Amino acid sequence: MFCLILIISFFFFISPIFGQTSCIKTYSNLAINGNDIHGVQGSSSSCCQYCQQIRGCQAYTWNTFNGGTCWLKNDTQPLYNSTGEYTGILSPGANNTYSLLKSYDASNWFNNETFVFNSFHYTDHKNGFVNYVDYETAKSEGLVGVQNGKVYMGMDNTTILPPNSTIGRNAIRINTLIRFNSGLFIFDIDHMPTGPGLWPAFWTEGPKWPSNGEIDMLEGISEQNFNQITLHTGENCAMTANDSRYFTGKWNYGYGNNTNSGCDVLAPNGTFNTGFNQASGGVFVLEWDREKFIRIWNFVRPNIPEDIAKASPNPNPSTWGMPTAYYTLGPNCTPDHFNNNTIIINSDLCGVAGTAFQGGELVCEDVARNHPEEYSDAYWLINSLKVYCKPNTPCPN
Ligand SMILES: *[C@@H]1O[C@H](CO)[C@@H](O)[C@H](O)[C@H]1NC(C)=O
Ligand SMILES: *[C@@H]1O[C@H](CO)[C@@H](O)[C@H](O)[C@H]1NC(C)=O
Ligand SMILES: *[C@@H]1O[C@H](CO)[C@@H](O)[C@H](O)[C@H]1NC(C)=O
Ligand SMILES: *[C@@H]1O[C@H](CO)[C@@H](O)[C@H](O)[C@H]1NC(C)=O
Ligand SMILES: *[C@@H]1O[C@H](CO)[C@@H](O)[C@H](O)[C@H]1NC(C)=O
Ligand SMILES: *[C@@H]1O[C@H](CO)[C@@H](O)[C@H](O)[C@H]1NC(C)=O
Ligand SMILES: *[C@@H]1O[C@H](CO)[C@@H](O)[C@H](O)[C@H]1NC(C)=O
Ligand SMILES: *[C@@H]1O[C@H](CO)[C@@H](O)[C@H](O)[C@H]1NC(C)=O
Ligand SMILES: *[C@@H]1O[C@H](CO)[C@@H](O)[C@H](O)[C@H]1NC(C)=O
Ligand SMILES: *[C@@H]1O[C@H](CO)[C@@H](O)[C@H](O)[C@H]1NC(C)=O
């Protein structure tokens, strides 16, 4: 009888009571800040089982407190460096699992049900020396198409512009028809535009800029070999010093120093420009949890997380480690700073990129006008842009 009770209690103890969770990822020397349900004394190898028994437990961090303590967590983030601590992630419950909302790829990219081609040019060249063309023009000039199952979007590389032209080089700017309020966005590309004075970007923007936000996941100018991640918002959105513990990029504190920007994070060398293309590209990811955070990862091939590389139907950002950039949403930046964002992909020329160009904006425009052959690498080669949502979240709406 004693033996039976022992066996029953033993099974009770180890069986996951709340759903079929398992521990899918462990990290050494990383801890999750806050989000404690409570602490349980034990060895690091026992933490997963403790977590499985507690409703709402999604992860744990173990440290040597009180001879060894499993800190059971109701969230899988934010991660920060902490020598000697271990963190384990449980498989997400249904409410925390991402599934595919929309895949943008060669099969639908140009079918007018996915993207709008923006057709305009800037009258003030500080915004760039380009002429964004509509789909029909882009197609007839060979600026867009499908190559080996990948989406190609280039820039005019044959026309010498008239010396007096105030309108810049033909280029592409598109935005999604769908507007988003949260979600997981995975942009997988083999090649990004490069060339003199280029200023390519993959970003989001809400209406009435900047009051509904802008998230720049991929942006830079031709002199850079690293990606520059930035938010632009309305007033009362601050990035706090503590956030810098939660990402691997370099906080370019005070960059721009104007009223709507300053949350600028630099990714490592190789995440932008020719070095990135020579590596056959990579993946840029935005995870926008409307209540908690915006986090961004830059992955360069071959270092792509397995679930992304294998096109898992349920990619799990909690298994990808510390992000390249992390922004807390909460009291210092309320979630309503970001609403109804479309996703934009464009290649600009000169303007902001001209100010950093050797010789300045006018030399940049001179090259842009007279040297079309310089823009043969000014193209995107895109595998896909996939958007995933969690259940019961305002992903598109
Ligand atoms: C998670 O735990 C923290 C306390 O550590 C609490 O403030 C928060 O509300 C909890 N979140 C959820 C979703 O239970
Ligand atoms: C999932 O979310 C729904 C709606 O918010 C809620 O009713 C349900 O209790 C949640 N399930 C779990 C396991 O948390
Ligand atoms: C796409 O093109 C078709 C045919 O020209 C048109 O009927 C439809 O309204 C267009 N859809 C959008 C979203 O522009
Ligand atoms: C540029 O010069 C040409 C030839 O003189 C003229 O036809 C054209 O209108 C001018 N364009 C502009 C924008 O001034
Ligand atoms: C910010 O970091 C400091 C020290 O690293 C810590 O004491 C403080 O609790 C942190 N604040 C928050 C809100 O996490
Ligand atoms: C965390 O530690 C790693 C490895 O020691 C280091 O490369 C990285 O810069 C650290 N990150 C932060 C945010 O301190
Ligand atoms: C930003 O502007 C403020 C107010 O003008 C000034 O005090 C601060 O030094 C500036 N910071 C940088 C990095 O330029
Ligand atoms: C990044 O690249 C620049 C330019 O090539 C170089 O000067 C710098 O040392 C590199 N930084 C790192 C951390 O490798
Ligand atoms: C976002 O778009 C929806 C649908 O058009 C609209 O009802 C809502 O008011 C918009 N939100 C903001 C903050 O503009
Ligand atoms: C224009 O660029 C495309 C794409 O790189 C290239 O195939 C083509 O040869 C270039 N055309 C000229 C005239 O350089």
Give a structural overview:
The protein is mainly β and about 400 residues long. The protein folds into two domains: about 10-90, 3-Layer(bba) Sandwich (Hepatocyte Growth Factor); about 100-390, Sandwich (Jelly Rolls), CATH 2.60.120.200. Helices cover about 10% and strands about 35% of the residues. The chain contains seven helices and 24 strands. It has helices at about 1-15, 45-50, 135-140, 275-280, 305-310, 350-355, 360-370; strands spanning about 25-30, 35-40, 60-65, 70-75, 80-90, 100-105, 115, 120, 130, 145, 150-155, 170, 175, 185-190, 200-205, 215-220, 225-230, 250, 265-270, 280-290, 295-300, 325-330, 340-350, 380-390. Strands 6, 10, 11, 14, 20, 21, 22 and 24 form an eight-stranded antiparallel sheet that branches. The protein has an eight-stranded antiparallel sheet with strand order 7-13-23-15-16-17-19-18. Strand 16 (about 215-220) and strand 17 form a beta hairpin. The radius of gyration is 24 Å and the shape is elongated. Mean pLDDT is about 95; it is low at about 1-15. One 2-acetamido-2-deoxy-beta-D-glucopyranose binds near residues 81, 245 and 248. One of its GO terms (biological process) is glucan catabolic process. One of its GO terms (molecular function) is hydrolase activity, hydrolyzing O-glycosyl compounds. It comes from Acrobeloides nanus.
